[in-house]
Design brief:
Elements (H helix, E strand, L loop, with lengths): L16 E8 L5 E8 L7 E5 L4 E5 L1 H5 L3 H6 L3 H14 L8
Antiparallel strand pairs: 1-2, 2-3, 3-4
Length: about 100
């Protein structure tokens, strides 16, 4: 193993809150999610699909992007719409600071 030091670009610790949610939508697809709120990512949320282990940083703009949830979480269109409807309830607007 190399003895060269690591070149950290960032190293930050903060308190976060995580909401764990399980639901079944009209598509009959079961979702097991962890939605983490953090002060990073301009107010976007970290949304982890606990079944697949996939995590995305999501905001309202991502929910409105056609095909994004389907592609990232590998979902059929009807299941992605169930997820989109749920996330619209918990994801707020992005916060941009100077």
């Amino acid at each position: 193993m190399s003895a060269e030091p690591l070149d950290f670009l960032s190293d930050f610790t903060e308190q976060t809150s995580t909401r764990f949610v399980t639901f079944i939508g009209e598509s009959m697809h079961r979702f097991d999610l962890a939605v983490t709120t953090t002060s990073r990512f301009y107010g976007k949320k970290l949304v982890t699909d606990l079944q697949s282990g996939l995590t995305a940083i999501l905001g309202q703009d991502d929910l409105e992007e056609e095909g994004y949830l389907e592609s990232f979480y590998r979902l059929e269109e009807d299941a992605a719409e169930d997820l989109r409807r749920f996330l619209a309830l918990v994801i707020g607007e992005a916060h941009f600071t100077d």
